[in-house]
Amino acid sequence: MRKYIILASMLLAGCATSPQDCDLHAQDPSFITKLSCATSGGYRQNIDAQEQQVLQSQREEKIAKQDLANTQSREQASSQKLANEQQQLTTLRTDLDKTLNRLQSSKVKSKQSQQEIKKLKELQQQAQQVTSASEITVIESKIAEAKKRIDVLEQANTLH
What we know:
Number of strands: 0
Number of domains: 2
Low-confidence stretches: none
Helix content: over 70%
Strand content: under 5%
Mean pLDDT: 79
Shape: rod-shaped
Order of helices and strands: HHHHH
Largest sheet: none
Structural class: mainly alpha
């Protein structure tokens, strides 16, 4: 009978433990606490909870890695776009300088050519302050128009 009383008290003690009492890393749990945790499933609950935490951490790490890869991809695309715009702007400025030099060295010294020189110099200043691709496109179109006007001036000069 005594064995049954001890066994019954152990079972009741097992019911009295919580998963927090069944910490595998506890300092020095008693034999009864260990037995209680083993029989009540407290150890298993702790292990399951820790496994869930590990799985959640792995999911979060995977999401963070994907976010990092996406950010790096966007950064690389932005850098490439900026490099392309800077190259386009450099080409634009070179073209503008050549057009201005062509007009200044031309034999055409009319009032129209002086006005064109003034417009091209204004374009040069605008080109120094360009900050977007749309501004580059606007200046490119203005340079193309100026080239056409210069061609017309030069042709008119050669006909005379």
